[in-house]
Amino acid sequence: MPMTASGSPSSPRTARSKRLPRHAARAPAKVTGPARRRSQAERSDESEIRLLEAAARVIEGEGFAAATFDRIGELAGYSRGLASAKFGSKDGLVRAVIAFVQRRLEARTTAALAMLDRPDATELILSWTDTLLEVVQTDELVRAYFVMMAVAVGNRADNRPAFLDAHEQVRVRLRDLIEAGQASGTISAKVDADATALSIGSLQLGIAVELLLDPTLDIGRMRATARQAVRGMLGI
């Protein structure tokens, strides 16, 4: 018979009362509802992003010629048929990657500019130039844009207008910032806003392409020099 702590016999009922019921030793089962199924639109968006990222990585790392639908689909984990259905042709792929990289670059530059404390137009232009060069150095997906641009120029490809459209958007944005600086008095009124915007954009492009040719380029020095050059263009 079981003994109590004092050494006296305990009753069977007392001994049984000290045992935990079986159900008390188990954690209660969690009742969860069924996992939310993603919509067709969500799955489509995810597959497109993965295909675009794969395309950019192939273009930047292996060259434009290697960016076949077979290779892109393989790297993204999808079939060739899906890549072909998404982009239709190599030209469609180029345009999609251009738009994808523009959105990516815009997000990075917008985040960097948001960190500035009450910036004027001059500081916005300088920081934009600085951030763009940093992104080109660190982001392989953005570098794919410049690889495609070089191919389009060298081959006199029909998709060159797509790059011109992208550069025009940059020129217009820079021109608007310059004109805003002129209106506030922080940028010289003698500066040709349109020509200067194009010159700043060309400076950015030139350094980006040089970085592709020579990955060992001291980008820190180039960024500092670019800031000085832009200040000179703005007459400050």
TrEMBL record:
Domain of life: Bacteria
Region (Disordered): 1-46
Domain HTH tetR-type positions: 45-105
Keyword annotations from UniProtKB, A to Z: DNA-binding, Repressor, Transcription, Transcription regulation
Listed Basic residues bias regions: 15-25
GO molecular function, one term: DNA-binding transcription factor activity
UniProt DNA-binding region: 68-87
Residue ranges, compositional bias (Polar residues): 1-14
Coiled coil: none
Gene3D superfamilies the UniProt entry points to: Tetracycline Repressor, domain 2 (1.10.357.10)
Protein name per UniProt: TetR/AcrR family transcriptional regulator
Organism: Sphingomonas lacunae
